[in-house]
Amino acid sequence: MILTLIKQSFEYMSSQTFTDQDFNKEVKQEKGIVLVDFWAPWCGPCKIQGPIIDELADEVKNAKIGKINVDENQQTASEFGVMSIPTIIIFKDGKPEEQMVGVQQKENLKKKLAGLTA
Amino acid sequence: MGKTSNLIIIGSGPAGYTAAIYASRASLAPVLFTGREPGGQLTWTTDVENYPGFPEGVQGPELMDKFRRQAERFGTEIVDLAVDRVDFNSQPFKVFSGDKEYHAKSIVIATGASAMWLGLESEERLKGKGVSACATCDGFFFKDKDVALVGGGDVAMEDAIFLTKFARSVKVVHRRDVLRASKIMQERAKSNPKIEFIWNTEITEVLGENSVEGIKTKNNKTGEESEIKCQGLFVAIGHKPNTGIFQGQINLDVKGYLSVNEHTRTNIEGVFSAGDVNDHKYRQAVTAAGMGCMAAMDAERWLEGKKE
């Protein structure tokens, strides 16, 4: 029981993985703030962004934080006009509010999230 | 605050990590700041074919990961933050990141250089919407599309060739009628049937509302203006040194590069420099690594001299 609880809280804390299949449910129909990192394995700067997103997910509690691999999920990337990675989009109540291109530092992302949750 | 380190290294390209490898092996316990582009310019490339020791070539990000692990192995303290401000007016030297302050007896500056942009309003507006400086990241989004690329150096040729894997056509727009790129890269680009060169031409505007639809160009010999239809514009026009935070603290040359004497010394005792931040001539991973080694050895000797 305790183990399950620990496991659940751990899963909640780390960043999530989104796909074309669950993007509707997990992001577009989600009430509140969702931050999505669009990335791909061949992209050097994305490898820098990835761990920053993981840390952010560990520290930010009032938003859902996740990643989507554009190579495997081209439909979502194209739906939001992503033509450069890493791109980060912050959704509020399912609507894209903020779109950023290039590696973003954690502090900057925290500020953006705070601005939207305020 | 608190402790004063022997050495702070600012930057995490080949120069910074090599300085860290040498300094940590010399038991200086250096602290390295990775900065806004951790791993530096090589993280933007794919195949690195001219770094010795890798006969089959090596991926840029993979090479930089190896550099980092080698620096860590000997006890370098790696700080994944960017330096916002420095104070080199008195000992110990001070380095500021966010609201934190770090002190050191000596410094190696290895902040390198970052990609330059054309500086057009329309280019800025369409960044991430077809305008890119990272062909290896974004080429994928231009499958069967027509793209333009501006530049004439090795990186430009490498990017153009890379883009032909995805794009239907790549038009290389260059402001002169000769390329700066090495012969081997020129030959590879010129023999690629998907690449077309447009000489003596400058880009005056990137066209498109929500995404790139073309570019406006001007021939700088004839003055003739034209438009080229394309869905992407890749910018590979070179780099500028990352010396903004050192302005007013250290001597820079007219182009904004750090000025060095006796290989790696800046005008401030105890502050050394390595790599593209002071080198606009060679700008190679291997030369940057070599200079990083030199800067660490110079810093070590300088620290030794202070003790006596």
What does this structure look like?
The complex is a heterodimer of chains A (118) and B (308). Chain A has 118 residues and is of the alpha/beta class. Chain A contains 5 helices and 5 strands. Chain A is globular. Chain B folds into 2 domains: 4-114 and 239-307, FAD/NAD(P)-binding domain; 117-235, FAD/NAD(P)-binding domain. Chain B is 25% helix and 27% strand. Chain B has helices at residues 14-25, 60-73, 121-125, 135-138, 154-163, 183-190, 285-307; strands at 4-10, 31-33, 47-48, 58-59, 77-79, 85-87, 93-97, 100-109, 113-115, 131-132, 146-150, 169-173, 195-198, 201-207, 214-219, 225-229, 232-235, 239-241, 271-273. In chain B, 45% of the residues are buried. The mean pLDDT of chain B is 94. Chain A binds chain B through residues 40, 42-48, 51, 70-71, 77, 81-87, 99, 101-103, 105, 107, and chain B through 36-39, 42-46, 60-61, 80, 82, 98, 127-130, 132, 134, 136-138, 140-142, 210-211, 232.
Could you give the topology of this structure?
The complex is a heterodimer of chains A (118) and B (308).
Chain A: H1 2-13, E1 16-18, H2 23-28, E2 33-39, H3 44-59, E3 64-69, H4 74-79, E4 87-92, E5 95-101, H5 106-117
Chain B: E1 4-10, H1 14-25, E2 31-33, E3 47-48, E4 58-59, H2 60-73, E5 77-79, E6 85-87, E7 93-97, E8 100-109, E9 113-115, H3 121-125, E10 131-132, H4 135-138, E11 146-150, H5 154-163, E12 169-173, H6 183-190, E13 195-198, E14 201-207, E15 214-219, E16 225-229, E17 232-235, E18 239-241, E19 271-273, H7 285-307
Parallel strand pairs in B: 1-2, 1-8, 2-5, 8-19, 10-17, 11-12, 11-17, 12-13
Antiparallel strand pairs in B: 3-4, 6-7, 7-8, 9-18, 14-15, 15-16
Helix pairs in contact in B: 1-2, 1-7, 5-6
Largest interface: A-B, 25 and 29 residues
Compute the number of structural domains of chain A: 1
Span of the ends, CA to CA of chain A: 35 Å
Mean pLDDT of chain B: 94
Supply the CATH class of the largest domain in chain B.
Answer: Alpha Beta
Structural class of chain B: alpha/beta
> How many runs of DSSP E, i.e. beta strands of chain A?
5
CATH topology label of chain A = Glutaredoxin
Q: In what order do the strands lie side by side in the largest sheet of chain A? A: 1-3-2-4-5
Tell me the overall shape of chain B: elongated
